[in-house]
Amino acid sequence: MSYTLTEEQQLIQQTAREFAQEYVVPSVAECDKTGVHPGEVVNKMAEYDFLGLYLPGEYGGAEAGYLSYILTVEELAKVSGAVAAILVNHASAAAYAVSRWGSDAQKKSWLTAMAKGDALGGVAGLEPGAAPGAGADRVVAVREGDTYNLTGMKTYVANGGAADVYIVFAVTNPEAGAKGLSAFIVDAKAAGLKVNRLIGKMGLRGCQWAELVFDNVKVPAAGLLGGEGAGAAMLAEIQAVTGVAEGAIVVGIAQAAMEDAAKYGKQRIQFGRPITSFPAIQTMLADMAANIHLTRLAVYHAADLVDKGEKFAVEAAMIRLFAGRIGASALIDVIQIEGGYGYSEEMAASRFYRDVQGAILKNSSADFPEKTIVAEVLA
Amino acid sequence: MNMADKSLTQEQQRLQLLAREFTAKHIIPVAAEYDKSGEFPLFIVEEATKAGLICNAVPVEYGGAGYDSVSQAAIVEEWAYGCAGFATTLGGNGLSCYPLLIAGTDEQKKLYFSRIVAGGLGGFALTEPGAGSDAGAVATTAKLEGDEWVLNGTKCFATSCGYASIMIIFASTNPSLGVKGLSAFIVEKERPGLVVGAVEHKLGIRSSNTVELLLKNVRIPKTYLLGKEGEGMKIAMKTLDMARPMVASQGVGIARRALDEAIKFAKSQLDVNGKPLAANQSVAFKLADMAIQTEAAKQLVRNCLRLKDAGLPYTKEAAMAKTFATDTGMRVAAEAMEIMGAYGYSQDSVVEKLVRDAKIQQIYEGTNQIQRLVISGILLKD
To answer: What is the ipTM for the molecules in this complex?
Structure first.
């Protein structure tokens, strides 16, 4: 593939850049301080078709391709990792699931609403203390006639408390282990579904995390997504396609932070010269520039595979393995360059540092990108 | 948890356990709350005074504890295990005492240490907006007028100085000489003209007080000059030699805590098959790596301090310990977060705080770039 962007992609990138400056910048400080979902910014993103940017036109999407969407995520992340994460959890996680595995009826009702921005989505996969479906508090779905009855708890649900619809992974066959996991489309207003609490976190504040409690939530059988027992494979694919977008969040944050550090370093005079004239500082900047560039290429390449309908699981796993680390390492160096000033909240670096750490979270118990990669190596 | 390090002497082990109990009782239960509010934990200074842990660096003849350096470091490590912000506050007191040990007269020591022994905080103000790594660029001036020095200038990132009772302030007595014009002074907080400016809000060690200090015609007696005129840089460098292993110990404390949290998580978190995460070799080996680095950092600190306590040169070793141990604190905290995923990133866990706190030790008391300058300078000298 060529990494030269098409005119349309460049236009979308430029639009996202301007959007971020005009509509996201003003909300950043408040959002980081309060951690509250920035509803107005999300509504504005809907107006600009960001929420359905790569989704099919047939269901209200803009059908601009995954790479165009990735470019948008990257531009948003340069300004706000939280806003980018809200979009990714909606579009790459929840809407992707409906688009990929939904029936025509499910798509007509939910995907259309999600693409147009009438319904914000979130995925409820994780459970406290264990891999999805393996813990004491897991959500169990019991079929009773034409409905499933969901009971249990989900945690670290991104867009939790703000979403209008959740893709919930619940156990339909407790004996089958991971093979007993199934996905459901659940209306956030469903009776018995309660936001137990919002969970404070290091950064990406504004992309809310919630603990959800399911107390006999009745889901119509038509809300089952992709068939009973298909949940584990779906979760893995969602993780992969989301991972590509999360890589774009890392790239955006790290790029913006590097530019800040370069700007600061050129003005910071010590020992009679700008600190960027010292090889020790130059080495740090060169390392991060190389890491960011290579990660960006990997992200664009994986997005291109998604667009072409080719396999992308291994490429996505490589991004998930690598990008989080290079993001953290870049920000550790950015603050090092900016010194005491970088460590203070006055400069953006401290927020970038907190945000980048959460862009790609390997949710440990179920999730080793190494497994996916090594399976390919040993094949 | 309650095992002392057997490689320490009996007395060092006793102090290690004393500090560990102190941390468990007074620091760990409130650390998250103070991190959130950014409030200064003045109570901890009182508690540490009561526990006999406040004037660890003050010699016995001045009413202090006069602990050896290995003990002092072991105590700092315990504090940092609980909270690096608290450790910065309590450890900052030690830092502020070092210039007196290096260059103070008997009178000066009495003046300074009497306040510390009574539970007052000490401060150390060297950094300025234009003088960070380049300490020789200090623009604060001190002029002799009759029997008094008159100080003018602005200091920044001054630890605990919003609450300090007495402090060491660096100023130039002869700006035309650059580094060789730098001198060190004792200043009490009540001196007219000494004003606490803006308070820094920080990424981590949020309970530690970091302020700007404004000096407008601050008058102090002629006898408050430490050492001789122009010896400021030498005093500052020797002070930092002494302080660096203590900052290194913060890195060790953070790494130990991160490792303990990661172990706890790996043993309790279940995978898809209902097995603990720790049963996976890739996780278990990562824990082993974290432990190796933490232990190496701790021993590097102790080796350096044994050299110091034996009166041998230790500048290079102090810089090595500071760099390695603070890089280790940062790395191990980040690795704990990687193992712990969403839980580690959430404020339900202390690990996100460790990742924020661990960044500052790579910066203060001389950035790790300055340490490498010191180390390579010594390596390449001959």
So the answer is: 0.96
